[in-house]
Amino acid sequence: MNETLPIIYLARHGETAWSLSGQHTGLTDLPLTKHGEQNARGLATRLEGLKFVKVFSSPLQRAIRTCELAGFKSVAAIDPDLVEWDYGEYEGLTTPEIRETTPSWWLWRDGCPGGEMPPEIGTRVDRVLERFASVAGSGLVFAHGHVLRVFTARWLEMEVAAGARFKLEAGSLGVLGHERETQVIERWSA
């Protein structure tokens, strides 16, 4: 990776009914809950006064609404590569429900039948990182839990599966930056 990459702020969308229930929410276009809207407004406070050269949002309504309530919708570009992991046949199921039929299933290794495999989401995220490669300044991304975890792993030059270690709560913020020549996590799940 290029050491001149900007600092990138990662904003996970606010709470939805399925993030509360633990259901895998990929392409199902759910709205934010009332609490999720409060999460998004909280992001506005934490991002207040910061300047961003590029702002991207997933096209799904939970990310766009978070972007709007945080005060960035007018400057955000919609990026289809930021949609959540496509869970295919596992969409709407919880991990315990999936493991009733596939006991050893692990998203980060196995992907989803009828959905995405880890290398596919890695490729999508790498394209987004490339869009930041020539940006001088800070960037902001509004997206989803798993895709942002993959984003973090790829920023750190790790395999997609390393994203399993970077839990990002609904409505929280992560900051990716640098320490000298090394890409690092500056803040997480704030």
* Largest sheet descriptor: 6 strands, mixed
Domain count: 1
Query: Roughly what fraction of the amino acids lie in strands?
Result: 15-25%
Classify the helix fraction into a percent range: 25-40%
| Approximate shape | globular
Unreliable spans: none
> CATH fold name, please?
Rossmann fold
DSSP helical segment count:
7
Task: Report the mean per-residue pLDDT as an integer.
Answer: 95
| Strands side by side in the biggest sheet | 3-2-4-1-5-6
Identify the CATH homologous superfamily.
Phosphoglycerate mutase-like
In the CATH classification, which architecture applies?
3-Layer(aba) Sandwich
End-to-end separation in angstroms reads: 25 Å
- The value of Rg in angstroms is 16 Å
Order of helices and strands: EHHEHEHHHEHEE
**Structural class assignment:** alpha/beta
**Total strands:** 6
Assigned CATH class: Alpha Beta
Walk me through the topology:
Layout: E1 8-12, H1 17-21, H2 34-47, E2 54-57, H3 61-69, E3 77-78, H4 95-101, H5 107-110, H6 118-133, E4 139-143, H7 145-155, E5 173-179, E6 182-187
Parallel strand pairs: 1-4, 2-3, 2-4
Antiparallel strand pairs: 1-5, 5-6
Helix pairs in contact: 2-3, 6-7
